[in-house]
Every structure is written in structure tokens, then in C-alpha cells.
Amino acid sequence: MTTDNNSQLNPQLTPEQTTELEAAAFRSLVAHLRERKDVQNLDLMNLAGFCRNCLSRWYAEAAAARGLELSTDQAREIVYGMPYSEWKAKHQR
Predict the structure, then answer these.
(1) Residues 3 and 25 in one domain
(2) How far is residue 89's CA from residue 93's CA, in Å, rounded to a whole number?
(3) Phi and psi at residue 60, to the nearest 5°
(4) pLDDT for 6
(5) Which residue range forms the structural domain that includes residue 66?
(6) pLDDT tens-digit profile of 9-64?
């Protein structure tokens, strides 16, 4: 999903507005996944084709594409809301 394509789909939105909406949707998704600790990554992968780790990887890849340094562990902590090792110990079955 690119900002340019979304702006073309809805010409009433500026590229900046599209980016703001995409960012808000991303934050809502991350908050939802943080709340639903009962849903395992394997469940997400089987049903949706992506999981929290995929989302973390995409976040890190987006940072790298923009010349920003962000480790996989840092990206995972952003998505999980805590260090990945802590989340695994508390919530992974």
C-alpha cells in the first residue's frame, strides 16, 4: 500500500492526509494486537497470513528504506509493547 496509490483512489485526500490515516490505522492495529494477547502468532499466520513478527519486520524494513537505523528487537518492542522475550514468556503457548 503506497500513499500515492491511495491518494489516487480518493482524490479528495492529500498525500499527507493519506499518510496520517494510514498511520492512525497502523496504531489501531498495533493497539488491538497488544490487547489480544490470547491470539497467538501462529493463529494469526494461519488465518491472516501475517503475524506480529511480520508487522515488526515490515516496520524495520520501512525504517531501513528511509535510512533509519532500527533493529528487529526494537521494531518488535514497538509492536509487542514490551521486549519480545518478555512477551513470549508471558503469553506464548
Answers:
(1) yes
(2) 9
(3) -65, -40
(4) 58
(5) 38-93
(6) 677 889 999 999 999 999 999 999 999 999 999 999 999 999 999 999 999 999 99
